Structure formats: C-alpha cells, structure tokens
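quick one if you have a minute, typing this from the bus. below you get a single protein, a line of residues and a line of whole numbers that encode the local backbone shape. could you go over both lines and see whether the tokens make sense for that sequence. anything you notice is useful, everything is just below.
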Amino acid sequence: MKNITKEVLGGLFCVVVLIGLVLVFSTGAAAQAGDNAVYNSSGNCNSQSQCAASPAFFDASVFVGSVTSPTVCSVLNYVLNTSNHILTSTGAVIDARGVILAGASPTCTSAYPSPWSGISSPPPSTILLPAGVITIPSTWVLPSNTHLIGEGDNTSAAINTTLRVSSGTFTAPGPIIQFGPAAGASGISLEKLTLDGQGMSVNGIVNEYAGDDSYVDHVSLYQIRGTGLLVEGSAANSGPYSNILFDTTSNYPGTSSTVCAQIYDVSGGTRGIHGLTCHAYTNDPPAAVLLDSSNNTIADVTIIGFYDGIRVGANGMAKNNVLMNIAGDTVPTGIGSPINTIHIENGSTYAISDLSIMGTSKGSSSTYTVEDDLTSTHLADTYVAMYAIGNKGSGGYYSRFTTTPNAASWVVGAGAPTGSCAQGSLYSCIGSSNGCGSTYYALWACAYNGGTLGWQGVE
C-alpha cells in the first residue's frame, strides 16, 4: 500500500470536521433542511469557530404545529415573520410542499389571507407551494424579491398547484396576484401554477409596480373573465411574460370586459410577452391582447375566440413594437377565430408608428389577417410574412412595407415585372439590361395607363 501523505490526511480531517459542523448547526433549528457549512472570510475551515451555518433552506411543514388552526397562509406567515427568529433579513428558500400533508388547511382565512399579511418588511424568499388547490379570500400582494413557484400549471392534473379565489369573499376585480405594494418593487416572479377565477370578472396578474427581474413563466389563467395579465405604469424592464395560457372555459365564455393580456402605458417598455394562448370561446370580448405602450415584443401567440386578436393603440400610444408569429386559431376547433388577427387603430387619438409584424395568419372564419386603419389597408391573406409601418410624414402619410401582393409595396426581381399588381407598388429590377426589358428600366411603378392598371417603367 502506498504511503498516505500528510496533505491527504489533512484533507480527510477537514471533510470530517465539515460534516460534523453541518450536523451541529442543523440541530440548532429542527425545522431547517439543508443547513450548509461555509467558510468565513479567512478561507479556512479547520475549527468550528472558522465555519458558519448557512440557513438557506427551510421545511415549512415542521412549523404546522406551531400555528393555531394552521393554513397554508398562516404557516408561511409564521416562517416569514422575522420576529419568530426563523428567517433573517437575508431570506431563504421556503419549502411548503409538505404543509398540507402535515395538517395545514389549503383554505386561507381572513386572519391570514396571504403569507405576508401584517409583515411590514418581508425578507426575500423563494416559496415552493404545495400541489393541490389553495383557496384565497383576497389578493396576494407579492413583496420585492419574492419568487412564488408551484408544482405545475396543467389545469387538468391534480398534482399541480392552483390558487383559487374564494367565491364568497373575493372581491372583483381583484387581482388574484399583484406584483409589489408600491412603485420601485423588483425581483418578483410567478412560476408553474394556475390562477382560477371561478368565472368571476376578476383580474389575474397585475404588475403596476415591479420592474427589473420581475417575470411570469408557465402560468395558466383559468376561468378569469376580467383581464388575465395587465402590465402597466412603473413596470418598465419587467418580463418576459412567457408560456401563459388564458382559458375562460366553455362554462364561462368571455364577456365584453374580458381581455387576455394588456400592456398599458409602461414608460421605457417591457421585455415582452413570449408564448401566449388566448381562448375565449366566443367573439364577445373585443380584443385578446391590447397593446397600448411602446418598446415591446409580443411573440408566439395563438388566439381562439375574441373579436380582434391583437389590437394596437386603442387606449394609449404605441411606438416601436414588434409582433412575431401571431396566429388566429391554427386548429379547426369550431369555437371561432378572431375576426381580425391584428387590428391597428387609426392613430387619431393615440400616436402609432414603427410597428413591425413578422409572420401572422388567420383562421378560416376570420375576415382579415391585418386590419390597418392607419393606412386604410385590409389584408385578407391567409398568411402575411411581413407588414411594417414606419413614421408619419408631414403630409399625414406613413411609410410602409409588406410582402403581400395585395397591398402597395416595394419588391425586387431580376426580370421585368409582369402580372397584376397593387396600385402604388414599386419594383426594382436588378438583372441584366436585357433581363429588365427592352427599355432597360431599373425602377417600375404600378399605375394606371389608359385606364389599365399595370407595371409602368419609371427609369
């Protein structure tokens, strides 16, 4: 056997000491799980005085017996309240996935309607919610640096997490979840759960205050007949809001006040909505998505039901926005496509400019893929690859480019243009002199000549 060096023996001794310290510090707080021993500033861990416990993870189920008439909300409130000396101001991960199995009721009461009730300065936390239905009597206002994570957002699976409003106490319009108590909030997120409005005219998620590092991912907005997602005011740089399903269900079809998502008057813009399905079952709701703010991207959206899919500039200024892959009902469900996949308002009330649309389609029962009231253009094409509107000129007219042959545009080819064209279109011939026709025109315009509309050489 080879000799064991002093360095190896020293390393083994440090590992044994480290494990011993973990056990020593963990026994000081039975509710903690995963206390980690960490080095102090000297960088050594040769004795207990040189190491410290890191209470980064807590099992909330241990505290169920510490609370009178425990509920999911009251147990979490007990852990979050720093006066109970469980968490410090540095915060931690709170695993609440076992609190219901440990005896806590899934129905929160008016005494503790949310985990943060009565706590003036909640510590930062990542809360892992249990599977099942948690009934809440009023809005959950998420403080800064709070991350709420469920077990999943599939509304049909019992193993996932649902926050359901109490039909007897919850007051419309809510919302069910509010990001931040006041302007200046940040670091708030909601992931992997379902919000159930029980068919009430409540709002799902409202972010008026939280900016950087605030987002939504894999959340279902279920049986909500108000606004599913509302981002407004001081929520600049928030997002992205991704993988969201809005479904009123056939039991509660949408009403005239139902909106899937809205971005409204956010100064500086957001990181956008990426991955959204809006399902209203009827065309009664005026619009699925209301885009009433500047500097946003909305991508990968499917709309079923609703009158308009995305309505731009109806309630506020909308400049420098990008819409990508917007589909007006891609499957023949028989429920109804939006009448217009994208509807651009006329700009008479709120300024609209620099809008880029890349990849949009309409369902078989839809009227228009793009209804553009700015330039009085209505496209009934099943698919439109690109439609872009620029700034408004001094004469009141807009620059515009589109790939559809059914609206004036500027196209390029190697030979002289032939066939039908939309009046006002331009064509650049970049082929050889012979390829561009006997007159060698490099630029052509679609105009009337002798009462016939066709391509006319310009120069």
Residues 414 and 431 are 4 Å apart (CA to CA). The two ends are 93 Å apart (CA to CA). The helical segments are 6-26, 72-80.
